[in-house]
Amino acid sequence: MPEKITGGCLCGAVRYEASEAPKIVVNCHCLDCRKTSGTCHGTHVGLAKDSFTVSGEVRFYDSTADSGNIASRGFCPTCGSPVYSKNSAMGDMVAVRASSLDDPEIAKPQLAVYASRAVSWDPVDPACKAFPGMPERPA
What is the pTM of this model? Predict the structure, then answer.
């Protein structure tokens, strides 16, 4: 694991870093992640909010998740790249898009959520523990 996790948007206007290893890496097959990723799942790297810093302007689009929580998806207003998200139920974490990492090899998905919504030509990774929806977050 690198000392720092770094990444950013396509144009370089947004940059971030985290000083701690990922808490979890998840492939999400929900409709919102599919639409915001531009493909059929989003890969999210869960990081402790306290270890995460970001520079540059990030705009957020808020939507209500199936759970009723608010998902805030952050993107670069210049190039449109999705960078990271927040969820109202997980105030202690942020989730960076694996596609925004400088070294995406550090993102090894462990879980697949909304696996029941995976499209046939983008199947759930058999190496991941799969959930048909969103599992309860352990306390």
Answer: 0.92
